[in-house]
């Protein structure tokens, strides 16, 4: 069993809507609409415990999952949703040792999930054109403890990818088609290209470039996630859902195409 230490990040849950990610610092109080919690009182106690606020309201104290970190990212950009991230990790076959190029870093939501998958022997090389965005991402990744598996660099990725023989290239930026050629150069044979784009015309331009180079298994998908409310006599899909995030295009690099 792991006990809570000074400086640990915790995920404090009141209910489905009121939940918070924060750092445990002795002497600090965490204020909520349900009263405050003395953070120092949590040290030495087990994750999973219940803590009572100054107004007598009960909260669960959990260890943040990567999913919680993604949903609670400090953000200056749109971030990828867990539904898309989970598919990306499988499609790119990430595991310990994988070497991955990513652009843009954005708020670092995907970067954290990928770093978590490639540790302890892999690396995420993540580029962004905006210093302001990457600073926020660096803070998020640092808090998650995953920075040893991430290298951040400010770079316009349309000007080229400096890495060679990587296992996967992932693009979440406005003009992915401008990076397809250098993605082919950077990938090891059989490596995976992926891009995320909110609009169909971006997908069409990216696919046209993929078709002009030695890539196979070129496909685009869209994922729709529907949550189910489960309660006696009321079990059915929720009326609200995220209608659209973006399309995921993927392909595999080959050395040459058959006639
Ligand atoms: C939607 S955000 C990426 C979000 C990220 N996937 C996440 O989950 O947090 C897009 C990022 O691409 C960056 N970007 C746009 N054009 C770029 C380029 N040519 N080279 C590198 N980064 C670029 C933007 O600055 C922005 O931070």
Task: Walk me through this protein's architecture.
The protein has 259 residues and is α/β, with parallel strands linked by helices. It has 2 domains: 9-64, Vcp-like ATPase, Chain A, domain 2, CATH 3.10.330.20; 68-253, Rossmann fold (3-Layer(aba) Sandwich). It has helices at 66-71, 82-91, 109-118, 131-144, 180-186, 200-211; strands spanning 9-13, 19-23, 29-32, 35-38, 50-52, 58-62, 99-103, 123-128, 150-154, 166-171, 187-197, 215-221, 228-229, 236-237, 247-253. The protein has a 7-stranded mixed beta sheet, sandwiched between helices. The longest helix has 14 residues, at 131-144. The protein starts with 8 loop residues before the first strand and ends in a 6-residue tail after the last strand. 36% of the residues are buried. The model has no long low-confidence stretch (mean pLDDT 96). The structure holds S-adenosylmethionine. S-adenosylmethionine is lined by residues 77-80, 103-104, 106-110, 127-130, 133, 156-158, 172-174.
For the record, give the distance between the C-alpha atoms at the N and C termini, rounded to a whole number.
59 Å
Strand proportion: 25-35%
**Uncertain parts:** none
How large is the radius of gyration?
Answer: 21 Å
Q: What structural class do the secondary elements suggest?
A: alpha/beta
Nearest-integer average pLDDT = 96
Question: How many distinct helices?
Answer: 6
Could you write a compact summary of the structure shown?
The protein is built from six helices and 15 strands.
């Amino acid at each position: 069993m792991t006990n809570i230490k000074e400086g640990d990040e915790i995920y404090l849950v009141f209910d489905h809507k009121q939940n918070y990610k924060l750092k445990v610092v002795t002497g600090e109080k965490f204020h909520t609409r349900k009263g405050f919690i003395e953070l120092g009182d949590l040290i030495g106690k087990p994750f999973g415990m219940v803590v009572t606020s100054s107004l007598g309201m009960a909260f669960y104290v959990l260890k943040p999952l990567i999913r919680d970190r993604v949903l609670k990212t400090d953000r200056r950009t749109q971030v990828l949703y867990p539904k898309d991230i989970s598919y990306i990790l499988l499609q790119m076959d990430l595991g310990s040792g994988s070497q991955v190029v990513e652009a843009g870093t954005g708020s670092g939501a995907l970067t954290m999930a990928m770093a978590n998958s490639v540790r302890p022997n892999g690396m995420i090389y993540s580029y962004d054109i905006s210093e302001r965005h990457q600073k926020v991402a660096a803070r998020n990744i640092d808090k998650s403890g995953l920075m040893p598996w991430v290298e951040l660099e400010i770079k316009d990725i349309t000007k080229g990818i400096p890495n060679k023989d990587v296992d996967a290239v992932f693009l979440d930026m406005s003009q992915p088609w401008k990076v397809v050629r250098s993605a082919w150069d950077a990938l090891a044979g059989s490596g995976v290209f992926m891009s995320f784009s909110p609009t169909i015309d971006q997908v069409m331009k990216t696919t046209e470039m993929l078709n002009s180079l030695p890539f196979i298994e070129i496909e685009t998908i869209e994922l729709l996630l529907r949550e189910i409310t489960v309660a006696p006599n009321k079990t059915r899909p929720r009326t609200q859902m995220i209608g659209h995030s973006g399309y995921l295009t993927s392909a595999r690099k080959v050395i040459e195409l058959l006639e």
